[in-house]
Amino acid sequence: MRLIAILLEHPSGAVPAAHALAALMCLNAARLSGRIDEAGNLIPLAEQDRSLWDRKLIAKGVAFLELSATGAEISDYHIEAAIAAIHANASSMAKTDWRSIVGLYDLLMAQHPSPIVALNRAIAVAQSESAERGLEEIAAISDQARLAQYPFYFAAQGELELSRGECGKAREHFHAALALARSPMERRYYEQRLAACG
Question: More exposed terminus of the chain, fewer Cβ within 10 Å: N or C?
Fold first, then answer.
């Protein structure tokens, strides 16, 4: 964030894309305090205490996002910051505007398609419509091979299967995610999700 602040202070640096990047960084940083508990364990979005989110930093991020709208260009940072702003301003998972998030991911896919973007879009579809629809969207991702080493790919399917009551399928996905865990924190999280499968 210090680097982006330095960039924005430079006469040639205060361009819309830089403001959008600053917005994205502020909005993501604002939620960090709610993502990890006192024991160092990851907290899923649905269980985070949103009162711990930094409202001043969220307001700063929204202000940067508004500044980013001064040009004709819509960069990936603009879209990602808009998604982050919806999350940051929602009072709960249930009150999040998931339909708008899906629409923003559609824009991002049109502009910069990737399996990761498609996976995030599928998760938003699941929240907007149903777990079944989310799983359909995941199955429809064209480049599955690129996701095979990405633990969140399996974890996302595990969460959706668990929400459908398919504990056996969920357990398989969480085992796959656990095998690919990239840190002790991630490993503990997937172990907790496995335990939730019964």
Answer: C
Q: 135-156, pLDDT tens digit by residue?
A: 999 999 998 899 999 999 999 9
Examine the pLDDT at 101 and tell me if it is beyond 80.
Answer: yes
> Whole-prediction pTM value?
0.91
Tokens of 153: 């790919």
Task: Please state, as a whole number, how many other Cβ atoms lie within 10 Å of the Cβ of residue 167.
Answer: 14
**Where are the domains positioned within the chain?**
1-91, 97-147, 149-198
Asked if 144 and 115 count as a contact pair (C-beta separation under 8 A), the reply is yes
The band of 28, judged by pLDDT with boundaries at 50, 70 and 90, is very high
Residue (of 27, 161, 46) closest to 85 by Cα position: 27
Calpha distance 91→103 (Å, rounded): 20
**23-37 burial code (b ≥16 CB/10 A, e <16):** bbbbbbebbeebeee
